[in-house]
Structures are given as structure tokens and as C-alpha cells.
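quick one
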Amino acid sequence: MKLTILTDNHAAPGLACEHGFAVLIETGGKRILFDTGQLGAFDANCRALGIDLSDIDIIVLSHGHYDHTGNLADVLRIANRTTLYLHPSALVERYSIRNDKPKPIDMPEAAKRAIDELPKERIVWVTEPTRLTDGVFLTGPVPRQTTFEDAGGPFFFDPDGKTPDPIEDDLSLWIEQPEGLTVLAGCCHSGIVNTLDYIENITGQKRIATLIGGMHLSAASPERLDRTIESLATRNISRLIPCHCTGQIAAERFREELPYPVEAGYAGMVVESGKG
Ligand SMILES: [Zn+2]
Ligand SMILES: [Zn+2]
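structure w/ zinc ion:
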């Protein structure tokens, strides 16, 4: 199993960074693209890393935000036999509202159009835990059980801020391997503790070889951060790789306080394990 970060808020020397996320997973002869970044860093990094997008088998959208769906239309044009996995709510109109200013944060129109034009048999609507291929699964919507986690920001369906957006479409991916699970989150608007609890419930597996992805904790309350660290510290995790929207403060506290290796992710980072 090989996982390559193609777009992230940080990048290896020579690669581009942007506020966005995209990861290529290669396992069991399948190539899975998890999110598509926001702007040009994705394309630049794919070229620099020699990634051929034409033979992507599966595209997963972790959720519908613009920083994960920015290059979807282009990728669908190139990867013309791929199947797209997403939750129906990934397509909704949505905003973040700061200082009374609504900012649209839904996916670009080109991406919505590309999905609309895709033959129905090439779309899988993910509304429950779903198998992608051998040993690779999606959570679908994650039950929000903890009291201390929220969607992570001022998110609404309308520009007036009347209807909160719980970002129901948020999903994470896990890969089952002998050494434990690799868990990959996009923004983790469901909360990382909710997500890990849910995956543990489904799989019965407590060992996590690698936990990687955006954990959206930059706006987290001190209480949320404390309780998240408390929960992460008690888990059987071998390696944590905070990416994208995890936030500097959370990532630093993870590094200082968690009893296992923590290394911040960046575009160009490769995580390999097992065979296949
Ligand atoms: Zn994000
Ligand atoms: Zn997001």
C-alpha cells in the first residue's frame, strides 16, 4: 500500500502548496484518488511527481468543500473510466460566515456540471459504510456522538446564516492491513474522535498503523483540543500524520503530548506499508 500526498497546505521543496487536500492511494493494483485539491498546486504536483491521472480507478470526495473538489472536473475529463464516490450532500450550496460576510465554499460549478454529465453507472452515492475495493472502505456519514466535537466552523446552507450546515457528507477512508488500519480523513468535519469510534465499531479493529489527514482543529475550543488529545492518547495508534486543516496549534500539541510519533504531512510525502 502506497499513499502519496498530492496537495496540502505544506509541500516538500520543489512542490506547490495551497489550502487544499488530495491523496493518491495505490493498493492491490488499484489507484484511488482521495479529493482533488483547490487550485493549481494539484496539477503542478501531479506533473512534478509523474502521476498519471488517466488510469485512476476510483475518485473519492471526502466532502463537497471547494478545497477538496477544485480539480474534479479536470480529473474526470482525464480519468475517463473512473468511478466517483461521494455523498449526495457534497453538491449542496453552502457558506462560511465570518464577520457577517458569507463566503461560498461549495464545489466549483464546473465540478457540479462534470458530475451531472457523468453516466449514472459511474457514480456511487455513499450514504453508509461502503467497500471500495479489497481492504479499502469509506465510512459514509459519521454519527456525531461526542459532546465536545462540532463541524469546526461557522458553516451554513444559506448566506444569511439561518440554517447551520453539519457537513453530513463528510466521510473518511480506511484501509485494512495486517499491521492495523490506515485511516485517512479529508477535513474530518465529523470530528476525529467520532470518526475513529465509528470505524472501530464497524471493524472491531483497535490497532491503527497510520492516522493521516485533515482534522480541522484550527478553530477548536481549548476543551475540544484537550479532550481530543486525551482520546487520541489512549488509542493504539503507531503513527499520526496531521495534514491540511488540522491547524498549527493542534499539530504542535499532538507532537508534544501524544505517546507515539507525530509528523506533519506535506505535498510529496509518501506513506508505504505492507505489500500490494
Ligand atoms: Zn479542507
Ligand atoms: Zn471542509
